[in-house]
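To assess whether the prediction recovers the assembly geometry, we first specified each molecular entity separately, as shown.
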Amino acid sequence: MDVAPLVLSLLYQFGTGAAFFFLAALGLVVILGMMNIINLAHGELMMIGAYTATITYHAGVPFWLSVILSFFVAAAFGAVLELLIVRRFYGRELGALVVTWGVSLVLGQGALLFFGPFLPSIGIPGGSFSYGDFSFSAYWLILVLISLLLILALWWLYNRTPYGLQAKATMQNAEMAKSLGVRTPQIYTLTFSLGAGLAGLSGALLAPTVTIAPFMGQQFVAPAFITVVVGGAANVIAGAVASSAVLAAVKTPIGMAFGSFSGTVALLFAALIIIRIMPNGISAALQKYFNRRAGGAMR
Amino acid sequence: MTKRKDTTLKPEAETKTQDSAAVAEAATSKGIPRRTFMTGTAATVTAATVLPNLRMARAAETGPIKIGHIEDLSGNLAVYGVQKYHAALLAVKEINEGKTLKGGPVGSGGVGFTSNFAASPPVMGAGDKDLKYVDKGGALSNSGMAFVEDEDVLVDSGESGLLGREVELIAPDGQSNNNIWQQLTRKLILEDKVDCLVAGFTSAEREAIRPIVDQYKQLFFYTNQYEGGVADSNTFCTGAIVEQQVIPVVDYMIQKFGPRVYTIAADYNFGQLTAAWTKAFAPLVGGEIIEEEFVPLSVSDFTTSIARIQAAKPDWVFTLLVGTNQSNYYPQAAAAGLEYPMASTVNMAQGYEHRRFKAPSLNRMYNCVNYIEEIPTARNRAFVKRWYEMFPDDPYIGQMAQNTYFSVHLYAKAARLAGTTDQETVKKALESGLSIEAPEGAVFLEPSTHHCSHYIRLATADANHNVSFVREWPSIQPWWLQRVGVNLVKHKEYKQYIPDEDPFFSMFSKS
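The predicted structure of the complete assembly is given in tokenized form:
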């Protein structure tokens, strides 16, 4: 076998693997990473996005428009959820965990009752191309690109906009933010709604690659939590990016060499070791490292 | 249409009564004082004559006959569970409306179809002097009745309900969770005291509840297709097994596409054991498993598996993927331009992937099935019509749904034959060589192994996901358990055999 196609295939697998982790974690990055709500309904928010995209797509809406639409539908749903339920559980992590789990059960079973066990799938857009023995899906490459764009957009939102500043202030110290004139209840609603919208967006983006079923969201919950927890809360966006990359870098070569079972085992092991040696996640460790370097430069 | 009057199975105790009478006769003739003998046997005789009456009394108990039914109505496996639940509902409704499927204790085989045959019988020599030559008997021109094809196999049972009682389905949700399956099984047996349990999708679920079933000697129908090997006196496996599905399809695929096989299978007992069967059997028909990959049920991103398949360059891929997550393989492989022919025992006929995924994801998928909704026979069309009249919104009728449907009817047949719902008696009735005319064709419940012979068809999907049939086997026997010497009529057993226990397979492997 030629080496060049194999290397390209490994790079492609790494890229798609990292994009998969990042997209699975996208909404949770905001809701768990920033707001510290253990949102077990994360998968169902992704399901809402995927269902919106699928239903509108089959109603004749172009795919990319239906993806954007699912962001807004999931965000609106998130806002309602925050106002009605989640609001009452700030600062009560375990309460939030149980209530979001309940919400997830209601949503999954509700989707089963309303829409049946399956919706017809969306064909994966874009074709494939091959190089050497391997062939690649164009859509997955587009997903990698979109993931990079989303990273930039999130960074911009939280570092360059008034909302970002107020959100960060609210999450750090709500009382102080309030006394400085930030409308913290609105910020909470907006942030939760953004997280839900992002979950819906990634659900819609991943929809063509998966089965559209009521409990489809559950397949993303474990990878999402692993990605966010490994990434850590010190800088959620950088953390999620770094942990997606690290996890994909562990999973890809081992999966390729020994099969997907070994790949999954290696992934879980890597997560275990990282959390053991960096209890606050990769982002905290990175921040410490950069702080030390910055401190060293000043001296 | 002649109505069959189901004969009542003679209760065992009655035979005993006759036996003891015979012994009494023999004893008196040998000169033992009759009076002494009578006092000695009085107790036995009374017990023997009273017991069947007791049994009849219990059978005449009022209240409905309870069929317990556990399937996954939610979770990763709900797509299959809902179908099976609807199948049970349909069968119970039909029983209560006084219907049954044709069939009875008439043994293997069944009604068939019209066919073409030669104009005259083959003649040795055929007017020629060369006697080694056998004439074909002319062109295949005469069309006639080889067998009868039934318009429909649902006929009147002669009563509404079963044994004069209504049949009730108690069907809790297993939630795709093995622990919940165990709790529900205990509840159905101990609290609801079901007369019959119909349950089980994955082999993991079956193995989770089988010890409980055996503990309480519960009559249990497992209606899924599976890896085979369960020899259990309380369990009746009505789905197709490896020798009926894997062997025919592997044989066909090797002939048609070549010997190099890549197996990608779900990582639990079904996938592992079916892959082991394939590996053991492939050398017998000239094939070779070049690579086996087992995928955890939680995996839903198949990029790496697809690259591995491309690196291995097989002639065809054997996919044994289970559940919602794993069916993502098909669209992902199609999007990545993977175009190998595929074979399976589970996909298409049970998860209707060819209806759910955009064509051509399932192009050149081959599967030996005992049932698929597209079977083009009159009886199946009638069944499909009945189904959609009751469940107009259902997306598909899968293989397991049909199995559950005829299994519930089979239970009713056996109970009617036994004349009671007493579980031990019904189990004996089920071991009497029952055949039933299912929508797929004739199904024979083989008494010694508690498995069914099936009408097997090799179905394939084309680039537009249209299903056609390329081969048919009107009756394939479940022969492997017989080969390893299982006879549940004579010897009770409660285990699952695996291919490693049979030297037959290692004998042929090229290792």
